[in-house]
Amino acid sequence: MIDIKGLRKSYGSNEVLRGIDLHVDEKEVVVIIGPSGSGKSTLLRCINYLEQPTEGIISVDGTVLDGETNINKVRAEVGMVFQHFNLFPHMTVQQNIMLAPMKVRHVSADEAAIQATSLLEMVGLKDKAMSYPEQLSGGQQQRVAIARALAMRPKVMLFDEPTSALDPEMVGEVLDVMKRLAHEGMTMVVVTHEMGFAREVGDRLLFVDQGVILEQGKPKDVFEHPTAPRTKEFLSKVL
Amino acid sequence: MDFNFDLIIESFPLLLMGAGVTIKITTLSVLLGVIIGLVVGILRICTLKPLRILAMVYIDFLRGTPLLVQIFLVYFALPVITGQRVDPYFAAIISCGVNSGAYVAEIIRSGIQSIDKGQMEAGRSLGMTWLQTMRYVVVPQAVKRVIPQIGNEFIALLKDSSLVSVIGFEELTRRGQLIIARTYGSLEIWLSVAVIYLVMTLTISRLVAFLEWKFNTSRRSAA
Ligand SMILES: Nc1ncnc2c1ncn2[C@@H]1O[C@H](COP(=O)(O)OP(=O)(O)OP(=O)(O)O)[C@@H](O)[C@H]1O
Ligand SMILES: [Mg+2]
User: Residue A143: its pLDDT value, please?
Assistant: First the structure.
């Protein structure tokens, strides 16, 4: 579903990604962990071209990203959930969800509204359709953000620390939605510090350090038998 | 000193008519200015460099030359090119509106840049184009945020519109001049003119404050 070959990304002289090769299968859930500044967000943002790779080839569902001609088409297939939700504050929850399907997929307003309702039901927020984002808790906002991304019927979902900005008691409700998505067969790439989630839901765990994938494998194996010293050191801090 | 109250009372209806004209051309000019300013302000930060430069030239030229000279350019210089006389009314609105557009463009630009970058990223990540995200996500938030500054621009232009009196357009200042030419009541008339301007600008600033308040509360009560 996602194919990354020789991905490099520099900001000026600062090389943030230093040669990443990654293949993500359909329905696979890949969890990325690693220290702050290691390039996890940058990797995720290259997959939907929010950051332009300096070098390397990325393809999503067979389409090679070229930055200009097909980028909006690819992005419509790749949902992204941000740490800070980034809901549109001037729109109701329902409008947030309806906007992109109407403007990009040219879905009718009626159809988009019906879809929004069922998505809100799925994330447990049916009664919040007419609320504005500022009236919701962080956990609720993030669930709306997930619903908004799903409204485009993406083939892949990217999550960049979706629970890091939440109060601890709200982390669970967001992770539950993500678990359900994974069980329903969504292809997911998730950057997170939630090791429980990684172990339970992840098919594969990547440890990213200083712009390279230092270690990867089944989450259980990496957690229990890390090979690289850097991985051991990192895990001893977070587990 | 001779202060003639009767002159003020006599001339008041004429001055009020002038004030009406002032409000009318200011409103039309600001409307034109907002339309131009939205377009130029967005071009100013768009991804295409030639368009950015074009917008910058527009803004620099209109903010870097006196409005009075711009009025002369439209009223006296333009006919040299087109060979046609320019109507003073048209000249007034075009020169004020085009001038205001440059200031509004800068207001809009700063408003857009004050919106969190995550908004553009969220829109783009959903597959919307840059322009779609600007239109439906960023600009509506930016415009709401700059209403007070647009209000200030309205007030500034209302005062600056007195400059179009030099091309004989009969707004408030020109009305005052004409009455004084007839009656020699400089003190009474200029004082009256000043007070009328003051009442207008104060009213508008209160109106803007009210509008801002309303904008901020309507969203909550609608939900
Ligand atoms: N737009 C940018 N311009 C310049 N440098 C950047 C930019 N974005 C990220 N960086 C740098 O790239 C490096 C990697 O950043 P990135 O956000 O990918 O790390 P991360 O692994 O997601 O870290 P965190 O866990 O803190 O989110 C950091 O050193 C950061 O300072
Ligand atoms: Mg990050």
Answer: 96
Tell me whether residue B133 is exposed, middle or buried, using C-beta atoms within 10 angstroms of its C-beta: 0 to 12, 13 to 18, 19 or more: buried
Residue owning tokens 């001893």: A236
Cβ atoms B143, B101 nearer than 8 A: no
What b/e string do you get for A50-61 counting C-beta neighbours within 10 Å, with b at 16 or more? bbebeebebebe
Q: Is A99 on the interface with B (CB under 8 A)?
A: yes
Ligand number nearest CA of A16 is 1
Protein residues whose CB sits closer than 6 Å to any atom of ligand 1: A 11, 14, 16, 34, 36-42
Please state whether beta strands A187-191 and A156-160 pair in parallel, antiparallel, or not at all (unpaired): parallel
Q: Do B223 and A135 touch (CB under 8 A)?
A: yes
Contact across the interface for B144 and A103, Cβ inside 8 Å: no
Could you tell me the CA-to-CA distances from A60 to B3, B112, B136 in Å, in that order? 83, 32, 27
Residue A93 pLDDT greater than 60, yes or no:
yes
Q: Does A88 touch chain B (CB under 8 A)?
A: yes
B34/B30 Cα distance (integer angstroms): 6
Look at residue A203 and tell me whether its pLDDT is greater than 90: yes
Q: Where does residue B75 rank: exposed (0-12), middle (13-18), buried (19+ CB within 10 A)?
A: buried
CA–CA gap between residue A55 and residue A198 (Å, rounded): 29
At residue A52, φ and ψ (nearest 5 deg) are: -90, 125
> Residue A136: its pLDDT value, please?
95
Q: State which residue of chain A sits closest to B122, comparing Cα positions.
A: A86
Strand partners, A59: A3, A64
Q: Which among A48, A84, A99 has the least Cβ separation from residue B125?
A: A48
Q: Which residue of B has its CA nearest to A89?
A: B141
